[in-house]
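for the writeup, i need someone to sanity check this before i put it in the appendix. the sequnce is what the collaborator sent (i think, or maybe the updated version? ugh). structure was predicted straight from it, no edits. if anything looks off just tell me and ill rerun, i have time this weekend
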Amino acid sequence: MTPEWHADESDLLTEYNDPNTAWERKVEILYTLAYQASAKNDHDTELIYLETAREICSTHNLVSKGIDVRITMARVLENHFERHQEALDVANEAEALLPQFTLDAEENSFKANVAQIKNKSLMSLERYDEGFYQAKTHAEISMQLGNEPGMAFGYEMAAECLVEIEDYTEANKYANLAKKIYFENERPTDVCDTDRIIAKAMIGQGQYTQAVKLLREVRSAEQLLKQKSNLETKVYLAIAYGHVGEVDRAQRLFKRLMKEAFNNWNTNYKLGLIAAEAYSNMLTAQGDLQGAKVLLDQVQAVKNRLPSPNHSKDLARTQEIDELIKKKQPKMALIVAGDFVEEKSEQGDISGYWSGIYETLRCHREMNDELAITTLWDSLSRAALEFQDDIVIKVKNIVSHALYVMERVEEAFQLNEEVLADYRLGQNVQEKAYAHENKARLLKAQKKRSSKWIDLAIEENIEAGNIERALKLSRFRRGGNDKSNPESYK
């Protein structure tokens, strides 16, 4: 569809509200209104018009217009809202309306657009294997359509994905395919972009001297073409400098880059973190282990305060587990949690992985399976847990109680002491009550006075609105040493 560039908005709305206006025409009007909203940078209104148009297309089986609307909507979700999973879902809807094989030029153009959007969304979600397939599809369809810029862009994005999955030989091949087209069409800025990808592949293959030479050339060209060199060019030039022994130059560049990446109005967290991690690695190689550790701790602290690329999807998964637990289906919840842990492990998502571990521990606790909890705990490398601010206290409280039940009292006591000394305990009254209850049980097991800690736990449960638990603890204070799970903490 082509928007009616100069149509009057009030006339369009009058026509849209006319009951005699055909549904196809209503979609065309909404498409134009969406375009006009976009021209005013009012993307919220643009999205509302597109969502309405999509609904009309679905209700009245307007297939071709439905594809066009969905492609535009997916692009808006990806480019202006960064709602990557939603953009991918809408692009998949458009793809499902297209034939698997076609010679029709318009349908192939739609398929190329869908592949381009899916590639961008998948790369944003760090699903690079799938992103490569979509980039390659975009290039192949563009070739059929005789669209050289589309071919070059597809090859370039394919190369980016291949660098991310460390297939440097293939990345170099696809980057050079894109570079050849850009060069022949006199597009020097795009040639710089593909040269940067080639240099990243060189760094991945240990060809640091060649990478320095190429990135210096790219930086010089960018400074003339755009009056400023690309941030990514400088990041990888600094990395290459560090590997060829130009440490002072690398260090100066890294410091400047981190300031530029994090303090710019258009903050680029990904490149800033890449620079900081690379700088930390260089400090380690130079023997400055303390400086490297401080910087690496800072990197992890920033990462913990950023949503993962799959944040929305991960949140839906944890909500699914929570619902299953509430429905008294802990075994089903445990299966979902296990799949979650496996997926996050394969993605290298440390924060997501620990979120999955916490959900797994919750499931075991719901089934009163302290052996499973302690067995899982014993199998874990726990260094990264300390950086998981949202769950570290919750995990340690669950494990401390399980260790106590399994009569591993000294380990339980030590873990409980860590919790009580952690400043993050003060952020959650209910978890503080749990920690104090654990302390009381451990002291009672050692035949030491525990009333102070029980009283604290009772007060904190009341403060948290957990009256049921407070009453149970009042009975516990009067006698007995019940080892059962704190049910109302589940």
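The domain at 311-489 is CATH 1.25.40 (Serine Threonine Protein Phosphatase 5, Tetratricopeptide repeat). The chain has a mean pLDDT of 90.
thx in advance!!
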